[in-house]
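Practice problem: predict the structure.
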Amino acid sequence: VVFAIVFYTGNCFIVYKDLFNFGCRLRRKISAWSVDLKSVLRTPGSDAEWRCVRHMLAAQRTFYFEMKKKMAEHHGYTTEDGILKHPGTFADFAEKHLVQKGLLLKEEVNLLAGFRGSKLLLLSSWSQSAFMEVSAVSHHFK
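Answer:
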C-alpha cells in the first residue's frame, strides 16, 4: 500500500511539474516573440506591436483555460465539498478574459468557437500573419 501511495504521488508530481515547465516555456516564448518584434519593427510602441502580440497572449490564456477544463473533467467537475469546478464554455471564457481585455475581437472569438482544430495553433498563426503584414509595411516589402 505504501508503495502504491508513493508511486501515485510521484506520478502526480511529475504531471504537475511537466505542466508547470510547459507554462514557463510558453511565457518565455511569448517574451522572446515580443523582443523579436521590437528588433524588427521600426516604430516601437506603435499599434503594430500590439496587433502582433495580442493573439499570442490570447493563446497563452486559452492554454490555461483548456488545462483547467481538462483538470475539471478529470476530477468529475466537483470537489469533495461538492463545489462546481467546471470553468464554463470557451465562449464564456473568451468574452470575460479575452474580449474584455482587448486581446480578441468578438468576430475572432466566433471563428475560434466554431474551429474544430487547435485554437492555440490558429491564434499563433494569426499572430504570425499580423507580423508579416506589419513587417512588410515597416520595411516596405511587398
